[in-house]
Write a structure and sequence with these properties.
Structural class of chain B: mainly beta
Oligomer: heterodimer
Number of helices of chain A: 0
Number of strands of chain B: 11
Helix content of chain B: under 10%
Largest interface: A-B, 24 and 24 residues
Number of helices of chain B: 0
Radius of gyration of chain A: 14 Å
Helix content of chain A: under 10%
Shape of chain A: elongated
Strand content of chain B: over 45%
Order of helices and strands of chain B: EEEEEEEEEEE
Chain lengths: ~110, ~110
């Protein structure tokens, strides 16, 4: 079975500081990994997926298969980045494709 | 407007009284799923459906039922709700099982 761990429930930084939200996973196969974000009073929405290797709103995330991690990074945090962030895993190649597992979520607060 | 619509947004009920939370999407997506969000536990998948008449259990299916008779609808049924099912519920859809999810606005359920 797969597992996703976000070790930090709460993360506070000041505006302009670098931020890193940690995500570790365990899965024996080849996973698809995503970051979803929930801003206050808005729906959960996709931020990043590892296969697209895009930078969205200044955030990047690299899949590190050796460390089984998919940490989300931004060099200069902005106040509008304050939100709940979820890391999610989709197990590719098995019979459970589509059975997504989410982490516990990290609430990021960016102070002015 | 492309969206996932859940109803109702808020629901208060009593133990044992059957209820249904509806979910509808207008994007012709094949994949739909249900999640519950609880503090400290993050998002946990209840059920998912890869297509019409194809459903499978997520991580926490006990006490829930689903059906997928039409592509656009994926209702969540609680035959005999209990207080431990008090939670915030989200429906989501995606083009395929590996595509980014589109979430509904959520349904806050309280079972007394």
């Amino acid at each position: 079975a797969q597992r996703v761990t976000q070790p930090e429930k709460l993360l506070s930084v000041f505006k302009g500081a670098p931020v890193e939200l940690k995500c570790n996973y365990s899965y024996s196969g080849s996973p698809e990994l995503f970051w979803y974000v929930q801003y206050s009073r808005q729906r959960l929405q996709l931020l990043l997926r590892h296969i697209s290797r895009e930078s969205i709103k200044g955030f990047t995330a690299d899949l590190n298969k050796g460390e089984t991690s998919f940490h989300l990074k931004k060099p200069f945090a902005q106040e509008e980045d304050s939100a709940m962030y979820y890391c999610a895993l989709n197990p590719v190649g098995g019979t459970s494709y589509g059975k997504l597992t989410f982490g516990q979520g990290t609430i990021l607060t960016v102070h002015p | 407007e492309a969206q996932v619509t859940q109803n109702p947004r808020y629901l208060i009920t009593v133990t044992g009284k059957k209820l249904t939370v509806t979910c509808s999407q207008n994007m012709n997506h094949e994949y739909m799923s249900w999640y519950r969000q609880d503090p400290g536990l993050g998002l946990r998948q209840i059920y998912y459906s890869m297509n019409v008449e194809v459903t499978d259990k997520g991580d926490v299916p006990e006490g829930y039922k689903v059906s997928r008779k039409e592509k656009r609808n994926f209702p969540l049924i609680l035959e005999s709700p209990s207080p431990n099912q008090t939670s915030l519920y989200f429906c989501a859809s995606s083009r395929t099982g590996g595509s980014p999810l589109h979430f509904g606005n959520g349904t806050r359920l309280t079972v007394t």
